[in-house]
Amino acid sequence: MTVNWIDLDGLVNLRDVGDIPTTDGGSIARGRLLRSDNLQRLPEQTVQALLDLGLTDVIDLRTDLEVAQEGPGPLTKEPGVSIHHHSLFKPSLTEEQTESKLTTQINSLSPEEVAAQALPWTEVVRPTIEVEDDSASFYLSYLADRPDSVLAALRVIATADGAALVHCAAGKDRTGTIVALALLLVGAEPQAVIDDFAASSIRIEQIINKLSGTETYRDNVLSRPLSEHETRPETMIAFLDYIEREYGSVPELLAKIGWTDEDTAALRAKLLVSAES
């Protein structure tokens, strides 16, 4: 599969999922859905390049503590870009802990406690649904723990005025899950979805080098060998096999948590190449 990489300073895992084939012989349109690693610390020319690509909506899948630790990215200052924060993990803060208290709490924790809360994929937390593949277990748990965020993220993609960009920290696990669901909802070829998910491994060294440059992620990413960070095709296969076995298909599963036929129609209109194109 040809990967539509977009090489911009400050980003190492940015790509357009356009051209992915669908089961009916069509394809995903270019310039509609982008996926990326963390959007922090972007130079001015990269911000402008993203705007030139037609970016209007950013779906940020990071936790509140990740966002607080990393600080606001430059795209938050762009009036033409809407930032939609939809964490896929259970909230680590109570509803009473407001945003203004977030920094105070972080400063009162030890580095180990911050890592445990800001990075809920560490060994401190176990997934709600467990299958043989550990990463797939976490992906399935996103659906069980945060169906609200899953649906909201997919609806932003469907209704974005321009290009929608989905990101987390590395742009491979949480991002890979939401993008895979969006693609499958509009009829993308399952093997092409698996290949897109696995493509992050091509740039895994650059991804880890970038994350290890920040206090938020350094200890976690450097504590494991590079191979453990890779996005293996087997992981997405295990994720999809479980959904098919337990629910029949991705659309059937999402229908059980509130996704509608109208949502699918909007997503198809957004992502698919039209007959007039």
UniProtKB/TrEMBL annotation:
Superkingdom in the source lineage: Bacteria
Listed SUPFAM superfamilies: (Phosphotyrosine protein) phosphatases II
Domain Tyrosine specific protein phosphatases: 148-211
GO MF assignments: phosphoprotein phosphatase activity
Protein name (Swiss-Prot/TrEMBL): Protein-tyrosine-phosphatase
